[in-house]
Write a structure and sequence with these properties.
This protein is α+β, with helices and mostly antiparallel strands. It has helices spanning about 5-30, 40-60, 65-70, 75-100, 110-115; strands at about 120-125, 130-140, 150-160, 165-170, 175-180, 185-190. It contains 5 helices and 6 strands, in the order αααααββββββ. Strands 1, 2, 3, 4, 5 and 6 form a 6-stranded antiparallel sheet that branches. Strand 3 (about 150-160) and strand 4 form a beta hairpin. Helix 1 runs parallel beside helix 4 and helix 2 (about 40-60) crosses helix 4.
Length: about 190
């Protein structure tokens, strides 16, 4: 039994990298989330690399391991391999995105904050203690890794009676910050409808 040479191992690794590139781009554009194990990622990448090798070997005529070893580092062949993997990732990702239009990267908090971060929005913040505040959206944490905090300008506390009708408004300075521990719900409005 003959062990593969270091050059053969390097060639195999180089041929697997395009599968990882394609898989990454495809998942990113197609909004395919979820955490995969290293084994699952590797298996998908190997499978995609095998698919990429079909057009690559057809275009470059590098159809055996010896031909690949001799010709892979010729710039036009390397360019062809990278072009197929990047282009394939974009193509498959765009096709997948057509079936996943309502899916977005990030959580609900991140997406709604990104949507309303353009400014001009008015919000109502309900605290965990049952208080209600109206104001103009100013700033919020965007990432799921950060604490969920939001700052409103021109904050007004709304006091409601037992019949849920507004009985009083209390102005609270220029800006108010609500921390993750405060926030129960947030309502967004394009204009001041309340």
């Amino acid at each position: 039994m003959v062990l593969p040479s270091l050059a053969d191992v390097l060639i195999i690794v180089i041929l697997l990298v395009p599968g990882f590139i394609t898989f990454f781009i495809m998942r990113r554009i197609g909004v395919i989330g979820g955490t995969l194990t290293d084994l699952e990622t590797t298996l998908w990448s190997v499978f995609i690399s095998l698919i990429i090798l079909v057009p690559f070997s057809t275009i470059t005529h590098l159809d055996t391991l010896d031909k690949i070893r001799d010709g892979i580092f010729i710039p036009i062949n390397t360019f062809a391999l990278l072009s197929i993997s990047i282009g394939g990732g974009f193509l498959v990702g765009i096709i997948l995105k057509q079936f996943r239009k309502n899916y977005h990267h990030g959580g609900a908090w991140e997406n709604i904050m990104r949507n309303y971060a353009k400014g001009g929005s008015w919000i109502t913040v309900f605290t965990k203690t049952g208080d209600e505040y109206n104001g103009q959206y100013n700033i919020a944490s965007m990432s799921e890794e950060e604490k969920r905090e939001i700052i409103i300008s021109k904050p007004i506390q709304i006091i409601r009676g037992t019949d849920k009708k507004k009985t009083k408004e209390i102005k609270w300075g220029e800006e108010m910050i609500f921390t993750e521990e405060d926030i129960a719900r947030v309502l967004f409005f394009r204009k001041w409808d309340i």
